[in-house]
Amino acid sequence: MSDERLRVCIGGGGGFIGSHLARRLVEQGHWVRCVDWAENTYFATDEFFNEFVLGDLRDPDVCRRAVDGCDWVFNMAADMGGMVRVLACACGHSDARAGCARAGAQGFIMSNAATLMHNNALIDTQLIEAARQAGVKRYFYASSACVYPARMQESTQAISLCESYAGAGEPEDDYGFEKRWGERVALAYGKDFEGFEVRVGRFHNIYGPQGTWRGGREKVPAAFCRKALTSDETFEVWGDGEQTRSFCFVDDCVDGVLRLMRSDCSEPLNIGSDELVSMNDLARLAIELAGRTLELRHVKGPQGVRGRNSDNTLIRKRLDWAPSITLKDGLQRTMCWIDAQLQQERAAGVNVEAEYAKSRVVQMRTPEAGGGAQGVRE
Ligand SMILES: NC(=O)c1ccc[n+]([C@@H]2O[C@H](COP(=O)([O-])OP(=O)(O)OC[C@H]3O[C@@H](n4cnc5c(N)ncnc54)[C@H](O)[C@@H]3O)[C@@H](O)[C@H]2O)c1
Question: Residue 92: inside a domain, yes or no?
């Protein structure tokens, strides 16, 4: 595909990955419309879009408005549950949507599974149908490592999850089930409708600056950076800290998404790092980068699956590329950004040590609860 100036729609373009992707596309000279039911609070508005539509992508009219006149559409929108969880669960998503369900946050995912599946299933069907009707040429679906079977993630010596394992057992929770279903919907559209190219990326724990870093929905790298900077003497790790994960820096994720989008690869690909790390080692790295001396303190809490890693054999083969930013480098960049956020908070009179070394619980939602007003900004 040539690199003419494209008109691009990013569903969920106010979110973490969506806004980084939008900024990259704007930098490359493309015209970008971000659509989200919430605004992004970390980027300057003129930094990452040409037009911002504030609207609910469960609504087919909003989806039609979103994709109108676009060549490419990225579906980066998902309701992650929008609730519970506390700081540093060691599962890779401190919002408890993933593994936390298995180890202490059972009530959370159980009581919000219906909302999450309802909302995401609507987004995943309405946006793609609107894109097809509008004659969009390429469509990207953001899937997740959560589609892989729970039974393959029971050891800290994580099995590298290669793409073909996805059908070999049940995902660990309803979020993963819905993502698997969303993939199937997207792939069916790609198969059935000529000229409508579909690409699917399975993200593995994406992190970096301009991501949520407080409030309960932040992921482990951000939570650990914040805790390393604000904890006093001890640093809490949930569980025994031997759980393992890999974390992919957001710039690598955006590279992977765009390479996949431009490729002729119509099968789902992992977009994740294969640098495996235990939560204890991640905590030690964060403490070292923060220049602190803190002792790890293991406390009861959600731990998620025991081990999860990305297998990058297929992406190397198909795209001749794989994520390469090291965890140390990515965490350092994330730490710098979170440090700047903390400094702003301090300057505003917040006692960041008291505020951010502690856990926080966010409430549950029902499907009819929306995320924002409707409108357009240019
Ligand atoms: N970040 C990760 O580690 C990770 C891992 C696996 C998969 N994913 C997937 O990647 C995509 C992007 O993730 P992210 O980390 O940027 O999450 P995010 O929560 O920052 O972004 C998702 C965006 O979707 C928006 N949204 C949700 N429901 C909406 C609706 N009904 N109408 C309009 N907007 C709506 C949210 O407001 C949010 O801005 C999601 O599909 C997510 O499931 C992310």
Answer: yes
Give counts: helices (H), strands (E), the chain.
11, 16
Beta pairing, strands 309-310 & 269-271: unpaired
Question: Is residue 226 one of the residues assigned to a domain?
Answer: yes
Whether residue 23 is contained in a domain is answered as yes
**Alpha carbon of 15 to ligand 1 centroid (Å):** 6
As annotated, the active-site residues are 175
Q: What average pLDDT does the segment 224-235 reach? A: 96
Give the model's confidence band at 219: pLDDT under 50 very low, under 70 low, under 90 confident, else very high.
confident
pLDDT band at 74 (very low <50, low <70, confident <90, very high): very high
Least confident of 40-49, 148-157, 172-181, 223-232: 40-49
**pLDDT at 371 (0 to 100):** 60
Measured by CA distance, the residue closest to atom 10 of ligand 1 is 142
| Closest atom of ligand 1 relative to the 18 alpha carbon | 16
φ/ψ of 156, rounded to 5, equals: -70, -20
Ligand 1 atom 9 nearest Cα: 142
pLDDT of residue 308: 96
Residues with CB under 6 A from ligand 1: 12, 14-18, 36-38, 56-58, 76-80, 119, 123, 142, 144, 203, 205-206, 219, 371
The answer to whether residue 345 is domain-embedded is yes
Which amino acid is residue 74, in one-letter code? F
- In ligand 1, which atom is closest to the CA atom of 203? 6
Tell me how far the alpha carbon of residue 57 lies from the centroid of ligand 1, in angstroms.
Answer: 12
153: helix, strand or coil: coil
Question: What confidence score (pLDDT) does residue 86 get?
Answer: 33
Q: What CATH code is carried by the domain that includes residue 197?
A: 3.40.50.720
Is the confidence at residue 87, as pLDDT, over 50? no
Q: Of all protein residues, whose CA lies closest to atom 26 belonging to ligand 1?
A: 77
Q: Which atom of ligand 1 is nearest to the CA of 146?
A: 6
Are 296 and 235 contacting, i.e. CB atoms less than 8 angstroms apart? Answer: yes
Spatial separation of the C-alpha atoms in residues 251 and 21, rounded to whole Å? 9
If one counts the domains in the chain, the total is 1
Indicate whether 117 pLDDT > 90: yes
User: What is the CA(142)–ligand 1 centre distance, in A?
Assistant: 9
Q: Which range marks the domain in which residue 251 is found?
A: 7-360
